[in-house]
Amino acid sequence: MNNSGNFSRRDFIVSTAALAATATLGGHAQAATALQYKPEADAKLRILRWKRFVQGDEDLWMANTKKFTEQTGVEVRVDNEGWEDVRPKAAVAASVGTGPDIVLGWFDDPQQYPDKLVDVSDVATYLGGKHGGWYDVCRKYGMHSGKWIALPLGVVGNALVYRESHVKAAGFEAIPKDTAGFLKLCQALKAKGTPCGFALGKAVGDGNNWAHWLLWSHGGMLVDGKGKVVVNSPETWAALEYAKQLYATFVPGTLSWQDPSNNKAFLDGQISLTANGISVYYAAKNSKEPKLQEMARDIQHAHFPVGSSGKSTELMQITQMMVFKYCKYPNAAKAYLQFMMEPEQYNPWMEAAIGYVSQPLKAYESNPIWTSDPKHTVYRDAASLMLDNGHAGPLGTASAASMADYIVLDMVAEAASGSRTPKEAAARAAQRAARYYKA
């Protein structure tokens, strides 16, 4: 679904979910936000954002955009693109100097072209001071050379999504807390004919997230604290040997899975365990099909197990709003960023999407969406729990380019599938990373 249009000239029909979310805050969502930035005369904005996996997210985003237009008179066009398409479109815009004014991008993409982006330190400082401060990982993602080059919108939380009855039928009361036990669970699920499945294709979120967890949980990393490439290591080889054993328990086809693939496989009953945001549960819970409603009652969420590192090593997908310098109306763009992050808009948006995107500002931890259903709560702590994708090295052009090039995910896929041995896959990853991390 690709929604675009001029929201000062036409009405947007807000879904039932959106209206319900607005109502839960006692009408506060209708209050006008006191803007710190005065939009330029006759300002117009074009926004590029990722296509929703949860309908309530898109409905409330568009409703909030309509509110912004009504309050300011600024015409806003919103284009929704597939997750895998946002990154290259943003990179092209940065290169040619024309395109969307604001892009909702992924991970540390802004670090690839920091000189092409508007300094939004004033917006970030204002919001942080007003709403409990930014989580450390959000500060790291949003800042470059001491200034904010992007505004973290939130974290698309990633967790294990599983069928509780199937896990119990396989002989486990819950998801094991360690990687050895987790492998045994996956093997038992396979034996029961209720296998797991994790994305190994070019999946921006689901593939990258679980592949980095696998590497880091065994003590491996792409680079060390100084940015030296160290991925070709015994720790990485151990992680890739583990990946081979885990892959043997997967449903067929995961090598080509992109972000929507495991959602579909889970809801179709092909798999009983995967790594995903809350969108699988959302789809089942809000379905009109009795079979999916029954599945929703059986769905549970859990954090990833802890490996030899002895600590949580999860990667989750941060999304950031960046304003390009070619934008003709930077004040209007900053006003839009502030508006969308204020509680009158942000709280109902989180609720409508049942916590699909978790907060980057600490004050929003208290949103009732995290406790209204215990199955939501795992996703609440995404920003406080996650590591950044540059781990253990610095974020910057090299980390962003390595992520965009799918180096870690490709390495895991090659070793897991047997197209390369673990040592061959690690050596190839090291060669690829060295192109970006130059000594």
From TrEMBL:
Gene3D superfamilies named among the record's database cross-references: Periplasmic binding protein-like II
Specify the superkingdom.
Bacteria
Q: Which family does it belong to?
A: Belongs to the bacterial solute-binding protein 1 family.
Q: Which InterPro entries match?
A: Bact_solute-bd_prot1, SBP, TAT_signal
Write out the annotated subcellular location.
Periplasm
Q: Which UniProt keywords apply?
A: Signal, Transport
- What is the species listed in this Swiss-Prot or TrEMBL entry? Cupriavidus pampae
Q: Spell out the protein name for this chain.
A: ABC transporter substrate-binding protein
